[in-house]
Amino acid sequence: MLAGRMPDTLSQDGTEWVVVQPSNIHGTGCFARKDIAAGAKIIEYVGEKITKAEAVRQCELDNEYIFDLDEEHDLNGNVPWNPARFINHSCEPNCEAEEDEGRIWIIALRDIPAGEELTYNYGYDLEDFRDFPCCCGSNTCAGYMVAEEYFDTVRRLRANMAKSCE
């Protein structure tokens, strides 16, 4: 079952507001094609609606593009018509992912100038956080792709690890 709508302007290369190109953060990223105002719905994260059991199976196959939808379903965004899957994590994001009636939208947190890379915080918890190092390069980078509520915890753990290596 497909989730989200595929507008005429959507392709693997981007949309009216988004262009997909190489990223300094990680491999490939999404960039603002034009100036974007704070609060704008930039792009929908689309894909295949799957069961939680299928999501677990997909994650075991290293599918990184699974989004939580509700108690019964997730969204597999690893499809060619989903350029939003290339939006990278940042500890100082300019966007956020927002669920709206079963659809996932990427929303601008602030004004974003044309050419700037679009990012959001993936919001990972502390389980296996060491498997997800962060390369965002922001001034407040926690070093791992965790939700902001875990930044201080991760920083303390990193400091303690560094002390034990001295």
List the helices and strands and how they pair.
Layout (H helix, E strand, L loop, with lengths): L1 E2 L14 E5 L5 E5 L8 E5 L1 E5 H9 L5 E3 L4 E4 L11 E2 L5 E6 L2 E6 L10 E2 L30 H14 L2
Parallel strand pairs: 8-11
Antiparallel strand pairs: 1-5, 2-3, 4-10, 5-7, 6-7, 9-10
In words, what does this structure look like?
It is a single chain. The protein is an alpha+beta fold. The protein has one domain: SET domain (Beta-clip-like). Helix content is 14%, strand content 27%. The chain has two helices and eleven strands, in the order βββββαββββββα. Strands 1-5-7-6 form a four-stranded antiparallel sheet. Strands 4-10-9 form a three-stranded antiparallel sheet, with no helix packed on it. Strands 2-3 form a two-stranded antiparallel ribbon. About 4% of the residues have low confidence.
Terminal residue distance: 53 Å
Query: Which runs of at least 5 residues are low in confidence (pLDDT < 50)?
Result: 5-11
Radius of gyration from the CA trace? Answer: 16 Å
- What does the average pLDDT come to? 88
Q: Which structural class is indicated by helix and strand composition?
A: alpha+beta
The count of DSSP E runs of length 2 or more, i.e. the number of strands, is 11
* CATH third-level topology: Beta-clip-like
Question: Count the helices. How many?
Answer: 2
Strand arrangement across the biggest beta sheet: 1-5-7-6
Provide the CATH top-level class.
Answer: Mainly Beta
